[in-house]
Amino acid sequence: MNENQQNATELADQISDEKRRGYFAAGMIRWILNESNSSCWEKDFAQKCQVLALEAKNLGNLPSESTRKSQATLKAVPAAVLYWLGIYTGFFWIIPGAAIGLAGSYLISSSIYEVFKAGKDARFYRTFLHYLLRMENADGVISREEIASLRTIIEFIPAPPDEKKQWFAAIESPDGYQKLKPSLRLSDDERDQILSGCWGLALCDGSDDAEREIFTLFGAELDVPDERLIRIQQKMEAQIAQHTYLVEETMRSVAIFHPSPANQREKAAEILSLLSLRPVSQKEWLARIDQILSPESQNPDFKNNSDEFTPRILLAGLLLSRFLSESEPACNATVTENFLNCCRSSGLEKQLQPLAAEIDRAIALIN
C or N terminus of the chain, fewer CB within 10 Å? Predict the structure, then answer.
């Protein structure tokens, strides 16, 4: 057995069945909550369940995983480095056939997903990294964690090795962005994508005056009018606020479905901290969960089935509740009953029961 084969075997041995199930739960929740603008999410639901279940089952044994990328799956930490790149599915960051789990909290931009899908060239990525580095350095400090996050991004960018070698060298120093000459050949969409990524990064770090000033400077350099800059900022802030709301509502639905969620609060916090767009620690999530579960907290009203988010929140809550009760058949039965009662009261039973069945089929495949 060569070194790569040995590393792959050790990796597979270290990934527990619980982590595989958590991978599936977090991945499906993320997908459901992030499909708020899609009109065909229900049609794609069964396929997404099956694909993600297979990824979870084969985690650590995926044929195209390099040793470096495979080992990274063991280093996952709470946050959302590549969330809006569209390749986050669960505990790890996923590109078809490959898993990586080195995560920080420094890049949030929904528009960058379209960048990967469109197959942008090295010219664009070099420019994007140039501006990200400058935004990271707005406070005069780039931490080792931030550098690790940027290395993760570069690892998966489809660019020539020689080009990527320069990028890896550039991120090692605060003024490394000077080695990455930005392109002047950018479309309006590309300019918006770069600025969205930079402002999302600023929001993750906690935007301050220095970051606002440098963001305005970026707008001037990229020849983007002030009114468009403001729209980009507002769009990113709204997306993060909406996602935060949906994640918290998911936990509120768990409080309705699960008979004893307080006993599983640590496991819940682990999943929720991975889903958070801002760098929220598990400790902070534990405090938030305690507030949600307190007698004074008001349970959500899911009877308004005209709310476009209600079906998604209920399914996300079912996924998390299933994960929290996976080893307790009686608890699982209670979760099912409470979920169906909630669906009936909201008039969503016909719509959601088939989707819930797909979730159970996928979980059975993992087990």
Answer: N
